[in-house]
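Batch manifest line 345
LIGAND: zinc ion
JOB: complex structure
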Amino acid sequence: MQAALLYGQEDLRLETVADPVPNAGEVVLKVRSATTCGTDLKVWRRGSHAKMLTLPTLFGHEAAGEIVAIGEGVTNWQIGDRVVANNSAPCFDCFYCDRQAFSLCENLTWNNGTFAEYLKVPEAIVRHNLLRIPEGTPDELASLTEPLACVLHGASRSQVRKGDRVVVLGDGAIGLMFVAVLVHHYRAKVILVGGRDDRLEIGKQFGADSIFNYRKLTAKLPEIVRDLTEGRGADAVIEATGVPQTWETAIACARPGATVNLFGGCPRDTNISVATEPLHYSELTIKGVFHNTPGFVREALQLLASGTIQFEWLLSDRRPLKDLETAFRDMGQRKAIKVAIDCSG
Ligand SMILES: [Zn+2]
Ligand SMILES: [Zn+2]
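JOB STATUS: finished
ARTIFACT:
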């Protein structure tokens, strides 16, 4: 089969590799839609990821497909089933899984390789995070299950209450998904900050109350936020850029007692500084939230299938597998939000 392999920094190669064969407990999908993700872009640029993969590797982690081969012992799936496979599954057996902290599982099984004609799904994912796509839900929409599950997880841990004013920093697919979910689930009044007017407009269509292009600000962002919140600051702040300096801005936008969710993963070995006084006297909660859990994976697919939110707005482009590198370049230049890759060969 044709598959994209990542060898290092911006070194992606399309190669012919052996078609995967499922071992016991595994299934193989024919990939119907694979979507690019900000995480893929980061990994492509940096040539590494703290947890997800080691090089060289099959690449890509968001996909919907059809089961074409089934390993021994898999009884609840059939050839032809249309499914979404999350890119990980927890072990349900470790210290963290016992505490329901599935995203911290010590033995997360990862899976990469959606930018290929076929995708082998490991046993743990088949068991815990392989979901049937409801009829009528297009494959490319279903392949957004993984990022949406991360966003649902992030939103649920940001202590947002109905009607809260929430700052979202970042107008990538994740930032925009946060806007949609915060407005839909929490009726939040979202202040969205990004760098491109066309994306901010999508945020507005998802229900953001106010939008700001950080390149055109007339005052410092925390001041603008305070102006919009009777001088207090935001009830919650969600950072979705993965830039250390923006993490600091996120903290500065929060009101006393707020929760700041530092959601965007930063480059390795970076640091931020936090003033001790507001942290203590303003009782801030500063937290990182990472990845998703099986519960949110299910919730995400249901939400996508329900059609209540137009998540298809995030698919800005469609390309064949051979143009994958171009897709990443377009994303890097922020010309594309998410690209649906056709891997049919
Ligand atoms: Zn992703
Ligand atoms: Zn575990």
